Structure formats: structure tokens, C-alpha cells
Amino acid sequence: MLKQGVTVYTQTPGGEAWLERYHRRRPHFCCLLGFTTTGLIEGVSAAGKTPQDRRYTALADAEFLINGPQPNPRYPLPPLISGVSPAVIARALVQALEIPVTLFNTGLPEAPNVPAIDLGGKPADCLSTGQALPLDIVKQLWNQGLIWGERLAQPDSYLILSECVVGGTATALALLTALGIDAQQKVNSSHPQCNHDQKWRLVQEGLSQAPDLSSPLHCVAALGDPMQIAAAGMALGAAGRGGVLLAGGTQMLAVYALMRALAQDLDLTPDWGQIAVGTTPWVAKDPTGDTVGLARLVGPVPLLAAPLNFAQSPYPQLRVYEEGFVKEGVGAGGLAVAAALCRDWGPERIQSAVEALLDRYQMSDIRYQ
What we know:
Elements: E1 2-3, E2 6-8, H1 12-21, E3 28-34, H2 51-55, H3 57-67, H4 87-97, E4 101-107, E5 117-118, H5 135-152, E6 158-164, H6 168-178, H7 196-209, H8 216-223, H9 226-238, E7 243-247, H10 250-266, E8 275-279, H11 281-284, H12 291-298, E9 303-305, H13 316-319, H14 332-343, H15 347-360
Parallel strand pairs: 3-4, 3-6, 4-5, 6-7, 7-8, 8-9
Antiparallel strand pairs: 1-2, 2-9
């Protein structure tokens, strides 16, 4: 079902109502930056060719999102196996739509080179350890998320909550499984063919090592990453005052599942009708996962897919998105939903904005592929 150029894949009446409510409203874009050493495992992610590249992906994407292409960035966009970082899409759209941006450091190896609010988190250890984060850090991120969600939410507007966590689809699978959701074979990946078996082996190892899965907070501490709990807190804090668009695929569906579990565990009553998940069509229609099926499993949340299509782009690094590379990240899908809502932009106008950025800043002179 199409509404304002956006496809509603699940919970059609709720999704259409959400889109109608926020048509012509300007959002506030938040990107939650995090890190897990899960992302350094060979083959687990295509968001950087080497482990060293992937260690700095979130820092590079954050710098690019705020500054755009620069001749000598502190953290250059890492070379990918194929394609270009979704930060390019995100930067083009926040700039063209004049959307305010706030970055949050939920737990990075180093401080970002651009302004970011530090939530007092830390990078997560590999989910296979079963002890990814200290419980006190998880509680800190939960509380800070609630505070900032309440602070940033505005009536008659919505927050776009996005993420940048390399290896985050693996921690999403782990968290979903710990919460009792059968997500095996359903998650997505930055690879054209999802590495389901590798992810599942890591999850099984982590589950066998986890000391305590008795509550949602303990599940995050055992198997999650710092973005997940901060985003869940922020969304639950905001949903009482304004709208929330969880911008991403598998990772944000895991955040939504975590929100449902926390609300039940802590007897919270947010306005669930204020919340939707917005992603790219490359995630929604990924033949190597089951995003729509997963959305139906995690709860009654509208899954929206943005009007994005780069099949006719002259840039090969954009065309490979149509082949299943990269797919999503840095809120690219959510921002394309916002472009449709704010300006009634379709895929051609969005493509034009992204290509204009590549042209304007002579991206061939910047380190990217």
C-alpha cells in the first residue's frame, strides 16, 4: 500500500495514519553511534573491507554526516567491499531538507571528531562472550535514552532515530533470540547474500555463555550493543510527546522488540501508535532475509519503506545498492521517508539530491569506493 510515495508493508491502517499525521512535518534526526567487537570478525559485515576499517566506520560516517566531503577528513569513509556508505545518502537528505541533526555516542572506541552527546556508554565485547556489556552501563544508557527522548520530542513532530553500528545485525539477531523471538534466517546483512549461518553460530555461542537472561536489560548486557538500549529508551521517552520513526531494518526491529519487552517488564504505557519503523526497499524486499515477517513477529508496528531506486544512476557505487550491497544505515531509509513526507519527493528527486552531493564535492577526490 502506497501513501505519500511510501510503501506500508505491515499494519497498513496504523502506517497510513502515522504518515498522514506527520505529512509536511519537519523531523529531528538523531543518529546513535555505537560499536561492538562482533563487527571485527572476518566476514560478519561488509561495512568496511578490513577489521581496521570497520573499527572506524561509525566515526567516519558521523564526520561525513555533519561535515560532508572534506579534503582531509580525520576519519575518511572506509572503502567498502562494494558501493558507498549510506552516510552519503543521509548527508544529502539532511542537507537538502534542512533537518536538524543530533549525534549520540552510545559507546565508541574513540570520541567522534564532530559534536556528539556522550551517553556514558562503552563499546560492547563480542556477543559470543555472553557478556557484551556491564549491566550498570546498560542501565546508564537506558536512563539517558529516556531523558533525551523526553527532551527532544515535540508535539506535532517526530524524531528519526537512526544507528551506525558495524556488526549490528548480528547483535540484533542475538537480542531478538534472547527475547524469545524466532528471528533465525529473517535478519538482513550488508552482504548481498546474508551470512545467516555465521550469525547463528555466534548467537548460539553467546547464549551458551550468557550468565543471566532474566530481564530485557540482562539480555542486552549479555548479547547486545550499546545503541540498542539507548535507542529503546529514547523512543519510549519520546513516544509520550511526539512521533518516532525508528530508521533502519533488522537493528531497529530489534530495538522495537526490546521496547515491547521493557514496557511489559517495567509496566510502561507509551503511545504505540506514535511509533513506526522506516527502512529502505533494499531491506524490505531483501530476498535473503524476511524483514516483513520479522516485523510481524516483533509486534504491531508499521514497517515503512522509502522511495529509493538507484537502478538508473550513472554512479556505479549507487547502482550496487540495487544488487543488495550495503542496503541501509545512518538512517538512509528513514530520511528518504522524511523526504517523501516533507517535500513529496519520489525516487528520482532523492537520487538527484544524492548525485548532486557527489558532483558538488567532487567525491572522486575523497577516499570512498
